[in-house]
Amino acid sequence: MPEPEISESFLEGYARILGEVAVTGRRLTREELEVRRALGRQAAEAGHQLRALVRMHLALTRTAWPTATPGATPAAVAAVTESVLSAAEQAVDAFAEGFERAQRLTVRREEAARREFIDDLLYGRSDLGRLAERATRFGLRLSRAHAVAVAAGPEAYTETDAVPRQVEAALMARFSGRKILITTKDGRLICIAPGHQPDVLRYFAKQAHAATDGGRVAVGRAHRGPGGVVQSYDEALDAIDLADRMDLDDPVLYSADLLVYPVLTRDRQAMSDLVRSELGPLQQARGGAEPLLKTLSVYFESGCVAAETARRLALSVRALTYRLERIHQLTGSDPSDPMHRYTLQTAVIGARLMDWPAKEL
């Protein structure tokens, strides 16, 4: 895009100041400096580049340079030169100060507008039609399907931190030109990408996992429309919360793979009854229910293979067998019996989801 033509008005009064300084040797007045700052601010708001404006000042300085008075001594010529150069320095410095102030203000306004848009987008606030219009400014077309990935690391991040900038740089280098929005929310890294481009979110997950020193990443399903972004974002957050409660080890979670869990707890009262009836007796064990509940959880995760379960729990197979027998004695259900296994495993999942026995049901 070509640079807009720069108006001579941004140099208004500059040549006059140089001429007066050459005669009087004075410095710029406070009012003159304020005018230079105002002109710099106007130039920034007009979209000009500071480098080009400085070149214009230097060119006019050369053109308006005062001619030496006939018979002037070298000392007098040097004094005039020093005064003019000092005035030029003052004028250009004030102009650049006004220019940079305006740029900083513009940047802050853009950052505030971006943050407001992201908050509205992820919270589902604002008129959806208006939200879709604002989204185009940030590279999103909300009429199409989008999916959201959320990365949670060991610390809270903001957009200016090194980790988000590192992840964003990696994605922009690989997917230049794609309609992607990378930001932070509540200390987590967020990536919003078109739903038909799962490779973007896979790569984000890889980069975010590495940049956050093994942080967990969750990816929501793709949904269409402005409300679809909120839905996908909520799914990703739920997946992270679920992984914490279920002690899932996977570094990258896909909400589509976890749909069975909310289904199991949709009837919370029924699930609570199942946990109490099937696992409640474990609280009679020495040490409480937690060690035996952990044993069951690892046993089912290991495919009900005793040797693998014992290895993961750092137990001997004999000690594991004793625990399984103790569970059978207390609950009346045999973990190794296919008829009992499904009920026990469902109850274990429900216990993890509802944080039992730490919380009363």
From TrEMBL:
Residues annotated as domain CdaR GGDEF-like: 124-241
Listed PANTHER family: CARBOHYDRATE DIACID REGULATOR, DNA-BINDING TRANSCRIPTIONAL ACTIVATOR ADER
Entry protein name: Helix-turn-helix domain-containing protein
Membership in a protein family: Belongs to the CdaR family.
InterPro entries associated with the record: CdaR-like_regulators, CdaR_GGDEF, PucR_C-HTH_dom, PucR_C-HTH_sf
Superkingdom in the source lineage: Bacteria
Residue ranges of domain PucR C-terminal helix-turn-helix in the record: 292-348
